[in-house]
């Protein structure tokens, strides 16, 4: 399978990832309490400090209330019915050394998702960490990356093998009690990826994690930590899918990025969780905290996201620009169709001098969906010469959807420059007629219009993914003009 | 090529608003026709209805293209048959380059007509050669479709698209309006290059001046939703001198049942 074909099957087609994999799970009770958290930690064989981290987060979470400010409506999940740990049964308790130790059903699942794990079929130039429910199943190209000094493994493995690094950085960008879902994640986090790029190193490959929820009852609480030392660079991409269930599943992730002096992290997401059916039955609740910290001078963190899935999305990838001259970027395409609801945007916090941020957000709503952009730009008193440029554009397809924009700008430094532009447009009958007159059918016409609208964001994606993101947008909106 | 028979059309959302009231028109292969008439006479509506615009409903009559009715076809299916409409108000498609649009359009039509599709390199050569038809610079290809174009550039772009897609029958809906004299000459020259023995062109226009550069075989006058008079180029000159008033009487006569 070529890389393009693989990626095509990863994002292409109507929702063809809705299948389930028949695997045997370890028994694990549902619900959440101190014993459950200790049990998660015990099963993962974690050191005491991680158990403590979890328990402290749990204490905070118990005191917190679910936020009600996002512009979305849903029934609060029953946290006692969620299963917070979901691992498949295996012969060998340790992380598999080779693919022979991995359940063939799971290997088959990833193959179906377009992510072959076998060595000879692996995607060229992209290292993949495959996360299945609560566990990382396998990570490709580990040795090759190790030659360059880059650590790429699951966070669980990193806790075992590189505790000093994890201890130093875990919770340093998103504190345990940051918000309701971040606290929950900190208490029960399952797996996710860990990346460490040493000084003066350009990571030789794209890194990618593929998240798969399979178990109907389990939530997914991934935890990702990326550290880029001085003068280093990494580009990371995550993809995600889930089976189609009538019930909603909870996905509450925390992602922390740390960029030291002159370092650059590019983080791209193609989010394609199951979004529920036309009536809004089922789908993933996607409540995510993603934050990057430009700790060193002249560092740069760039978030690019293409959000197409999930019943509810609640997500604000942010950048704290502490180092002087550091740069934060946020490029987003959020598409909602049918009954989907998305409240997404970013926070750009300017602390250092001459820090610069760019926000480009493109929201597309169709069907009976609701799409909100929520963004904050905050400029601290010492951020002399800070600059922000924001554009948020909304596009409506049809008459029954909604688009909303909530920008918050706080500037405490008179030398700062903040520019904000917003627009709303509707895909008009005339636009579609024009393209149809040139020979395209209605779906292709909409797809072309939408891709044109999102171009500034799509061009930020690694090239092979941009092509597929293009297609995904088209598929997502098929038949949306009735 | 095209036969419009007793075509009655109303606005989809308001059936009491009847725009075309029995249009008859026959366009032969390789012919150039001009349709003239004052504002509101139904000229532009006729072009859109032929192209399949959904805002209008055909209540009576038929449109035959190469002998077959196209009333049940979607606009894209009509385009696949070789029908082209140069828009009076070309639509902007931000973020989509002229080249992207045209390659997709060209290949879709080619595929439907059983012709070979062009790969990006072949298409590049082809499209660059077609630029000459309307005297446009290659930079034009990488600009977003009609976004930020001047009125004249938009009209020229329509003729450029026509040159690339090579349709059998083109309706040019007021392509000449809003053009200065130099642009008008370029556009007219382009149309003359495209029109040949195989291809037919229908120019919908208010003004006689484009007919100084393009010789029509037939000139028709529309008034109040009907073709009230047909003739040769001299008819256009007469209209230029005398206006439409002398035809108003003709229109009322035909209402009384006589053929125009």
From TrEMBL, chain A:
<dbReference type="InterPro" id="IPR010231">
    <property type="entry name" value="SUF_FeS_clus_asmbl_SufB"/>
</dbReference>
<dbReference type="InterPro" id="IPR045595">
    <property type="entry name" value="SufBD_N"/>
</dbReference>
<dbReference type="InterPro" id="IPR055346">
    <property type="entry name" value="Fe-S_cluster_assembly_SufBD"/>
</dbReference>
<feature type="domain" description="SUF system FeS cluster assembly SufBD core">
    <location>
        <begin position="211"/>
        <end position="453"/>
    </location>
</feature>
<feature type="domain" description="SUF system FeS cluster assembly SufBD N-terminal">
    <location>
        <begin position="142"/>
        <end position="202"/>
    </location>
</feature>
<dbReference type="Pfam" id="PF01458">
    <property type="entry name" value="SUFBD_core"/>
</dbReference>
<dbReference type="Pfam" id="PF19295">
    <property type="entry name" value="SufBD_N"/>
</dbReference>
<dbReference type="InterPro" id="IPR037284">
    <property type="entry name" value="SUF_FeS_clus_asmbl_SufBD_sf"/>
</dbReference>
<comment type="similarity">
    <text>Belongs to the iron-sulfur cluster assembly SufBD family.</text>
</comment>
<dbReference type="InterPro" id="IPR000825">
    <property type="entry name" value="SUF_FeS_clus_asmbl_SufBD_core"/>
</dbReference>
<protein>
    <submittedName>
        <fullName>Fe-S cluster assembly protein SufB</fullName>
    </submittedName>
</protein>
UniProtKB/TrEMBL annotation, chain B:
<dbReference type="InterPro" id="IPR027417">
    <property type="entry name" value="P-loop_NTPase"/>
</dbReference>
<protein>
    <submittedName>
        <fullName>Fe-S cluster assembly ATPase SufC</fullName>
    </submittedName>
</protein>
<dbReference type="InterPro" id="IPR003593">
    <property type="entry name" value="AAA+_ATPase"/>
</dbReference>
<keyword id="KW-0547">Nucleotide-binding</keyword>
<feature type="domain" description="ABC transporter">
    <location>
        <begin position="2"/>
        <end position="249"/>
    </location>
</feature>
<keyword id="KW-0067">ATP-binding</keyword>
<dbReference type="InterPro" id="IPR010230">
    <property type="entry name" value="FeS-cluster_ATPase_SufC"/>
</dbReference>
<dbReference type="Pfam" id="PF00005">
    <property type="entry name" value="ABC_tran"/>
</dbReference>
<comment type="similarity">
    <text>Belongs to the ABC transporter superfamily. Ycf16 family.</text>
</comment>
<dbReference type="InterPro" id="IPR003439">
    <property type="entry name" value="ABC_transporter-like_ATP-bd"/>
</dbReference>
